[in-house]
């Protein structure tokens, strides 16, 4: 029985951004799927070759506007390795705090997109309400809600503002209360279970073979978290547990939801620990050289998976070549595997749960 | 004792029609002084069959205005305010001072700190002003007929649906059957709209509407069959009249003999769930699942055609809530029916109509809260809920109702 192709995108409520998911359906069942990317390709790797090292931070912020701090931080990390710059201890701790604040904000934005995909618009408004708490904290820290331009090669732009730790603790305490409230909407909702459980199954072996990383891989039951396996900054001194799905039925939309949801709690815990373990004062930034030669490579645990930067310098004040590995670009290759055999309505449940960000996907 | 505000809608409208015809006739007679043949027109207008026919038109207009201008607007406004509150925001707040003409265009009054009741009117005007597009490859006749069919079948419900023992358009013999039949016409309009627009999204949406029709329609009818064991009648007036007595008298107050309290409780639950699917509220609104199907079967409609198919969902919600209230929640019966005399006519302080719309609007609010706190189910899941849960439960409800009728247990 031949089916017909449906374009879900480039302008469609399901696609949170500019991309196209072609779905071939037979009745309501998906028999084939093909993601079409590249609508938002801006040639990042090429643009970065003509800008100075520090000015590229502004660009990398825009790789993913939902999670800009983690991306510019990954670039700074790679460039520091190339230049051989050591970040002061306090600078590293401030980075940990900023990264985790950004991770919670990013995950809340994901939840705000995932819930209305399933028809639950109340989840959108609730998540965006709590996201403001973290955007306010980031604004107090860096001066901007989004696209902060906060990390610097060799540290961070500024020290923690006065009373920042107290503000963090107050916001996090409030947020954790609200997270308990969310469970009424998601964990205890029978319809939510019906829509997410057993949908878009991705086995551990497939997930590894297709290069899926981050919370999507952990939802398949693979304990991979670069903050643990390849610690950068001060993550080796923080005590936390990577959120891996341990229950039955790994790799479905519900597992991905649970992993991301619990990661928000873990990130809050990391922020509190970092605020405690941080040295009270000290330098937060060291001066990087203007020109550099060599190659640097850094991979970090982005909100969506493994973000990798490879920076090559030829002695000029700008990189000779930059390579970006974006996690969602690789995860997208596995989506036909996850979609096939499911129902048409599950497209939103699956693609919502893998947290697509088109900015970083198309680079 | 019940007391409707309008004891007889037809008689009231006949007085109104007579007054209108009298005014028109004065004009016609004035013309007849110059052109004598017009005297015959005045006599024809005043004759009994013409007055009766015109009275029907007036009755239907009154019911249309009551349904759309009062109930539709209010329930839409209540929904938008209520779900905004669920989502921790204010909702629509445009006040009457934002109207652009005298005496409302007061610059010294806040224009956006009101209740926002007129927001829906403004939205309707906006939709009226928008261009009405027809897709190039659409089946134009069917594409334009479908909203008419949906709107007309929804308004047909209100022909038979009574708002009190006096406020109704016409009293049919089997009006419950008529209401249910008018209810189930709309999915055909949806299928027609989805198919004729020649769009893949609308086609899938229309097919979904056709597929889920049977899943909720059958348990709904089975629940009505269960109800008939208790009531012995398909006349909604009779069904409400039977519920107008105390079940248990507790001295200060009495528990009324609603069909809900008794063997019909299971039927009530199944009927309510099926009615939710019938009105296409969010857990069951798979035909227009906006996440995957853009806007479902309404994707290609624009302008007021979209407004029609979109707004009439609320009218169906009002009708569905009214039907549940009539069948299970005692209809327009109420505890207080004190009257006072105005020129020899007994006017109720709290009339039947108020008790009824109170129930209808409260029931609508229950549906609103439910539909804004759960995600949408899938099409295969709604079929499973319908066939594997609702149908067996409604058959069980019939069994319980039959047994209860046998031993004489009932409200």
Q: Please tally the helical runs of chain B, counting DSSP H or I stretches of 4 or more residues.
A: 13
Low-confidence stretches of chain B: none
Oligomeric organization of the protein chains: heterodimer
Number of domains of chain B: 2
Order of helices and strands of chain A: EEEHHHHHEEHHHHHHEEEHHHH
Largest sheet of chain A: 3 strands, antiparallel
Determine the CATH topology of chain A: Cytochrome-c3 Hydrogenase, chain B
Q: Find the structural class of chain A using helix and strand composition.
A: alpha+beta
Number of spatially distinct domains of chain A: 1
Strand content of chain B: under 5%
Q: How many beta strands in the DSSP annotation of chain A? A: 8
In words, what does this structure look like?
- The complex is a heterodimer of chains A (363) and B (411).
- Chain A is an alpha+beta fold and 363 residues long.
- Chain A is built from 15 helices and 8 strands.
- In chain A, β4 and β5 (155-156) form a beta hairpin.
- The longest helix of chain B has 39 residues, at 48-86.
- Chain B is mainly α.
- Classes of the chains: A alpha+beta (363), B mainly alpha (411).
């Amino acid at each position: 029985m031949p089916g017909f192709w449906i374009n879900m995108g480039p302008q469609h409520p399901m696609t949170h951004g500019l991309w196209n998911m072609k779905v071939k359906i037979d009745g309501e069942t998906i028999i084939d799927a093909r993601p079409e990317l590249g609508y938002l390709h801006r040639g990042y790797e090429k643009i970065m070759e003509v800008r100075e090292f520090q000015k590229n931070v502004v660009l990398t912020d825009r790789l993913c506007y939902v999670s800009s701090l983690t991306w510019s931080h990954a670039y700074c990390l790679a460039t520091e390795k190339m230049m051989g710059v050591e970040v002061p201890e306090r600078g590293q701790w401030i980075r940990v705090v900023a990264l985790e604040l950004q991770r919670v904000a990013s995950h809340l934005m994901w939840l705000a997109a995932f819930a209305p995909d399933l028809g639950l618009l109340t989840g959108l408004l609730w998540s965006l309400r709590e996201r403001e708490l973290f955007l306010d904290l980031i604004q107090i820290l860096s001066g901007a809600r989004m696209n902060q331009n906060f990390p610097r090669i060799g540290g961070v732009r500024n020290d923690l503002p006065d009373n920042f730790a107290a503000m963090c603790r107050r916001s996090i305490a409030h947020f954790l209360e609200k997270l308990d409230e969310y469970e009424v909407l998601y964990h205890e909702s029978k319809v939510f279970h019906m829509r997410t459980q057993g949908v878009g199954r991705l086995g551990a072996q497939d997930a590894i073979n297709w290069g899926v990383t981050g919370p999507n891989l952990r939802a398949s039951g693979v304990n991979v978290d670069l903050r643990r396996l390849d610690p950068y900054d001060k993550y080796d001194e923080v005590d936390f547990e990577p959120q891996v799905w341990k229950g039955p039925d790994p790799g479905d939309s519900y597992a991905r939801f649970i992993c991301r949801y619990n990661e928000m709690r873990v990130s809050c815990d990391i922020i509190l620990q970092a605020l405690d373990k941080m040295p009270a004062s000290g330098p937060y930034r060291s001066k990087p050289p203007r020109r550099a030669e060599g190659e640097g490579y850094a991979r970090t645990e982005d909100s969506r998976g493994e973000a990798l930067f490879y920076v090559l310098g030829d002695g000029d004040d700008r990189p000779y070549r930059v390579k970006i590995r974006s996690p969602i670009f690789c995860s997208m290759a596995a989506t036909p595997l996850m979609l096939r055999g499911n129902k048409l309505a599950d497209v939103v449940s699956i693609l919502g749960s893998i947290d697509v960000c088109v900015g970083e996907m198309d680079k | 004792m019940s007391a409707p505000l309008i004891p007889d809608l037809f008689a009231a409208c006949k007085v109104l029609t007579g007054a209108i015809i009298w005014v028109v006739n004065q004009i016609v007679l004035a013309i007849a002084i110059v052109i004598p043949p017009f005297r015959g027109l005045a006599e024809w207008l005043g004759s009994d069959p013409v007055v009766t026919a015109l009275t029907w038109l007036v009755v239907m207009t009154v019911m249309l205005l009551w349904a759309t201008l009062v109930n539709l607007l209010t329930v839409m406004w209540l929904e938008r305010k209520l779900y905004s509150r669920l989502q921790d925001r204010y909702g629509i707040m445009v006040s009457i001072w934002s109207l652009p003409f005298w005496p409302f265009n007061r610059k010294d009054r806040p224009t956006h700190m009101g209740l926002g009741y007129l927001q829906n009117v403004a939205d309707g005007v906006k939709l009226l002003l928008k261009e009405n597009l027809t897709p190039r490859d659409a089946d134009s006749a069917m594409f334009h007929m479908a909203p008419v069919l949906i709107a007309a079948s929804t308004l047909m419900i209100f022909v038979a649906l009574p708002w009190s023992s006096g406020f109704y358009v016409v009293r049919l013999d089997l009006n419950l059957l008529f209401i249910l039949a008018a209810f189930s016409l709309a999915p055909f309009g949806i299928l027609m709209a989805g198919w004729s627009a020649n769009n893949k999204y609308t086609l899938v949406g229309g097919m979904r509407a056709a597929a889920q029709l049977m899943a909720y329609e059958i348990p709904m009818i089975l629940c009505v069959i269960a109800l008939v064991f208790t009531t012995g009648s398909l006349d909604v007036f009779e069904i409400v009249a039977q519920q107008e007595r105390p079940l248990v008298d507790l001295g200060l107050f009495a528990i009324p003999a609603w069909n809900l309290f008794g063997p019909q409780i299971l039927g009530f639950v199944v009927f309510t769930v099926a009615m939710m699917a019938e009105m296409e509220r969010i857990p069951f609104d798979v035909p227009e699942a906006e996440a995957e199907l853009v806007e479902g079967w309404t994707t290609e409609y624009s302008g007021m055609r979209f407004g029609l198919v979109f707004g009439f969902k609320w009218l169906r919600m009002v009708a569905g809530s009214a039907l549940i209230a009539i069948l299970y929640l005692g209809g327009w019966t109420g505890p207080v029916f004190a009257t006072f005399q105005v020129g020899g006519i007994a006017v109720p302080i709290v009339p039947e109509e108020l008790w009824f719309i109170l129930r209808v609007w409260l029931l609508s609010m229950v549906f609103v809260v439910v539909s804004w706190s759960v995600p949408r189910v899938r099409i295969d899941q709604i079929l499973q809920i319908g066939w594997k849960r609702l149908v067996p439960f409604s058959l069980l409800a019939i069994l319980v109702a039959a047994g209860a009728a046998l031993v004489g247990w009932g409200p």
